[in-house]
Backbone:
């Protein structure tokens, strides 16, 4: 077992444990913190695969921006462990059944996967220069189309966020 | 990577010792500079307001930061009863951690050779250096957010929500203004960016990026004020509305960590601004100086040049704090979203156009 494999298993254990922490912890802020930890361990995997650009972008976008927004919303709504809604018996039963089915699928998947064949291949595709060349030459059309998708999402957010322009008569204050 | 080499058995001990020394020097250097930045801030404020400022502890009050530090250490430590204890302690630790992490990718001076060994005055030259800085900056807000939330105090909570929305809003404009700069440098490595700004004059124009990207510099500077939570954008610590802000419930050295992290951040961001826009360790007529003095001395002069620029930048930050009044919160948001982001976008498009035009010629 070489050092890459040791690091890989350590990072994987960290990722799985913190991902479990996300769903198991009662406090939403702890869930967010666990999710951040998960993103960090995934970034560690990227670095092992020599994809430094992907690693740092993962940290900037997910851990740095999206999780800050998550935390922001949780704080704004002041969610706590004691205000978490309790589910009814039927919902819990449904959860157990669907979770069990998912567990079977995962078990079958793990059985089929050959863990011994896993190896960390060191490629150069994750370095920023190579990634940029591939994105802007080979996959330029899908790349541009996905940017249009982002643009439509942004416009949608602006439309939803725009205040109603018609002023309500009752709230008008006259000096 | 160091660990990998160590495990593989062929480890370069000289390399490890060199890096450990460098890290220690940079860490204690930035702590020391941050310490005296607190002193300088009070002196600058005093001079600008026609007062004397700290003068009792030591000559010119130079022992004041030490006295403050000792005072903070010995104060009673209070953790509020209804706080989330773990996160309450985690907050200041995160603030301090993210403040000191950025200096790892800064190039402090040119390489020099001692006894056949080339020593780089940079802890890690990674090819995505500026993105690393950006990543750490984007994590920096967690310290404030978590600390404010865990305090279980309404003022702290409001303050951390303000800090978060401010940081997110200004990160956008900051990133876009950086893209324009990076289109010109063509590299994300801070080392390359500094080396491209060699000297002061090159091919009939200034070589420093400030003269090539003046608008980008102004946007970047404004955003760094906001990211640092410093006046005129210190809304999270706005005492007339929020008492003390996010560190309301903190006492003893935890409070000290928050206050201190702000000064370390100021030092680091001054260093980044100098590196990106003011040529880093480059200075005019450096080629002539390089030929005149031995390489070790030349490296020392380069470090001094960078430090001088950083000190000027820190003094500028302080002068702004004691000159401009605080913005109102809606003004802050309007400035960020309606002025800085469109300006940064225009700057990016114009820069791209100019680069295309010069390529065609």
Residues:
């Amino acid at each position: 077992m070489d050092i890459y494999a040791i690091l890989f298993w350590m990072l994987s254990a960290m990722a799985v444990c913190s991902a479990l922490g996300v769903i198991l912890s009662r406090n939403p802020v702890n869930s967010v913190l666990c999710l951040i930890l998960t993103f960090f361990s995934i970034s560690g995997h990227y670095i092992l695969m020599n994809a430094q650009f992907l690693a740092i972008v993962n940290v900037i976008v997910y851990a740095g921006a999206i999780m800050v927004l998550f935390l922001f919303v949780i704080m704004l709504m002041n969610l706590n462990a004691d205000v978490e809604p309790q589910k009814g018996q039927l919902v819990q039963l449904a959860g157990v059944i669907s979770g069990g089915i998912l567990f079977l699928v995962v078990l079958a998947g793990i059985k089929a996967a050959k863990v011994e064949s896993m190896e960390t291949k060191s490629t150069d595709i994750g370095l920023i220069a190579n990634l940029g060349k591939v994105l802007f030459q080979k996959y330029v059309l899908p790349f541009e189309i996905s940017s249009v998708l982002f643009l439509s999402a942004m416009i949608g957010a602006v439309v939803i966020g725009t205040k109603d322009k018609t002023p309500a008569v009752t709230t008008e204050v006259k000096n | 990577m160091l660990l990998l080499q160590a495990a593989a058995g062929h480890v370069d001990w000289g390399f490890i010792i060199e890096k450990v020394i460098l890290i220690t020097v940079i860490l204690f250097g930035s702590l020391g500079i941050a310490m005296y930045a607190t002193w300088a801030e009070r002196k600058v404020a005093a001079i600008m307001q026609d007062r004397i400022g700290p003068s009792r502890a030591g000559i010119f009050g130079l022992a004041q930061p030490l006295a403050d530090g000792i005072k903070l250490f010995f104060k009673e430590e209070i953790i509020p009863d209804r706080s989330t204890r773990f996160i309450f302690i985690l907050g200041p630790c995160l603030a301090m951690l993210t403040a000191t992490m950025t200096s790892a990718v800064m190039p402090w001076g040119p390489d020099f050779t001692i006894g056949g060994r080339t020593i780089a005055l940079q802890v890690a030259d990674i090819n995505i250096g500026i993105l690393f800085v950006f990543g750490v900056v984007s994590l920096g807000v967690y310290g404030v957010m978590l600390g404010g939330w865990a305090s279980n105090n309404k003022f702290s909570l409001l303050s951390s929500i303000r800090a978060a929305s401010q940081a997110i809003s200004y990160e956008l404009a900051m990133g876009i203004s950086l893209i324009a700069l990076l289109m010109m440098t063509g590299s994300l490595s801070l080392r390359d960016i500094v080396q491209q700004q060699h000297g002061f004059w090159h091919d009939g124009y200034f070589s420093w990026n400030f003269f090539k990207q003046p608008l980008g510099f102004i946007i970047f500077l404004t955003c760094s004020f906001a990211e640092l939570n410093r006046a005129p954008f210190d809304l999270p610590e706005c005492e007339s509305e929020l008492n003390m802000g996010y560190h309301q419930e903190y006492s003893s050295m935890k409070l000290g960590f928050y206050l201190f992290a702000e000064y370390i951040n100021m030092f680091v961001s001054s260093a980044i601004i100098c590196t990106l826009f003011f040529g880093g360790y480059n200075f005019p007529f450096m080629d002539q100086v390089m030929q005149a003095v031995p390489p070790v001395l030349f490296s020392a002069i380069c470090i001094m040049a960078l430090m001088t620029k950083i000190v000027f930048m820190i003094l500028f930050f302080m002068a702004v704090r004691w000159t401009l009044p605080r913005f109102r919160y809606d003004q802050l948001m309007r400035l960020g979203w309606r002025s800085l982001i469109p300006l940064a976008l225009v700057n990016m498009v114009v820069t791209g156009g100019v680069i295309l035009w010069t390529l065609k010629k």
Remarks:
- The CA atoms of residues 39 and 62 of chain A lie 7 Å apart.
- Chain A has a mean pLDDT of 81.
- Chain A touches chain B at residues 2-4, 27, 29, 33, 36, 52-53, 56-57, 59-60, 63-65, 68-69, 71-72, 75-76, 78, 127-128 (CB under 8 Å).
- Helices of chain A lie at 3-24, 28-48, 52-77, 89-112, 128-138, 140-161.
